[in-house]
Amino acid sequence: MQYMLLIYNCERPEPDDPGFAEALARVNAFADECHRRGAFVAGHPLQPERTATTVSVRDGQALITDGPFVETHEHLGGVYVLDCRNLDVALELATLCPFAEQGAIEVRPVVGGPGLDHAPSDQALSDQAPSDQAATGA
Amino acid sequence: MSPAPVLQQVYSEHRARMLAALIRVLGDFELAEDALQDACALALRKWGDIGPDDPVAWLLTAARNSAIDRLRRAQVSRDKLAQLAGQPGVVNTRTEFAEDSLLSMGDERLSLIFTCCHPALAPDARVALTLQAVAGLTAGQIARMFLVSEPTLAQRLVRAKRKIRDAGISLEVPADHLLPERLSGVLAVVYLIFTQGYTAAREQPEHHTLTQEAIRLGKLVATLMPGEAEALGLVALLLLQDSRAAARYSPAGDVILLADQDRSRWDRAGIAEAIGLLDRALCLGRAGLPGPYQLQAAIAALHAQAPTAGQTDWPRIAALYAELLAVAPSPVVALNHAVAVAMATGPDEGLALIDRIDGLDRYHLLHAARADLLRRLGRTAAAAAAYRRAHELAINPADRRFLARRLHDLDVQEFR
Questions:
Q1: Chain A contact for B120, CB < 8 A?
Q2: Is A114 on the interface with B (CB under 8 A)?
Q3: pTM score of the predicted model
Q4: Model confidence over B179-205: pLDDT tens digits?
Q5: Assuming Cys at both sites, which of A116, B109, B306, B394 could form a disulfide with B312, CB separation 3.0 to 4.6 Å?
């Protein structure tokens, strides 16, 4: 089962920070541990909320607004996707994540529904533009 | 003849075990419950008046078949939906369960208990789910005992069951390195069930059911995990507290303090059983320090063994509270420690300890204890002020009546 770890309210270490090298090493060590357990699927730090743009479509009209969908004090700093045998394993890995010491990590199961495999259909593969293929192949 | 009586007997005796095995195999609480209900309905139609040779195996097989039917029906409707949406149906639902593995299953009740008490569930949901799935109470019964409406409670149960399925909450006994913490979570749920029953007003008949269910659940955990000293310690503690049930209230429903209780009304058999369990726990845990339930049980046992209130071994009780304060520090334990010290050495020492406790200013028993010590020191005005504060803060009507009486007695004394 896959779980998404949503990392809230953490300061991302910046290269100029005094503890940057150590912080980076800890984050990498966490990813290593996830790999070692065969759980690592993906990890994506996110740019801050000020870079967000929100899209909604109503009556066929796309509405594009500056900023995150919900203005809250909680900010989502990044996500990991981990493949774990059960929630216990996901929670245990979340406690090992260095970000858990600063903010909080929400652990959400990823839906694996019938018909929802996200694999490209034959049609999509044959329609794929060559430039896209080049980009993904790079 | 109707098969109802024999089914009733098999069901009430083996319900939790059958449900636990089905949940484990099916991975879904609601499906397991529905399948077991289907199996019982079928048994009512098919069984003669003595039932099959192995009624549990019969019911489990019938439940498994019903689960497969239900999953296939759900699969068919999903496939239909997928076709309507122009997608090919995807077959990924497990509809094959080896009957052998279900029938050869051992006792899965322990994993069921751990699942129901999982920390990823809300605390009130853990309590409700344990009472329903393990103890077999109905949603209506649980709702009345916890003073919530039945739809609210039913909703709470459904939400918890779906979270278990959808979030992949483990249906197994936790891994060894998680076990100590998770077991203490299970014991906390059992203790919570007991205290809910114990503190309920005496007039409520549910009072008795909850304390008895908690004792039964505690015994089940202790039996299934025979090496766990704290599980035994908890059962001993519950039995000791319960042994005083008949002496705790006057016929008018007023609280009677431990010191004033009629000790001949304490349940001696319960006390003897508890002391036996506590001895076993202390032997098991010899390597390490006793945990908080064993210490609390040891304190309760010293009270239970004192022939009169005056013969209570307060120095040992004070020492045990000091140990408890070291393993499980809390302001309430600090208050109990202070009271024991006051009894063992004198009200001055106790008062000094009480005045050092932080964070209990809104706890009526702190003020009641202070008032009592001040009274014994002859500081009547200060004692009256403390009783008044305690009376203000107390919620339980019996507690309030008790404190009002104490205040009244104090005024009478002063007047004389």
A1: yes
A2: yes
A3: 0.83
A4: 989 999 999 999 999 988 887 756 666
A5: B306
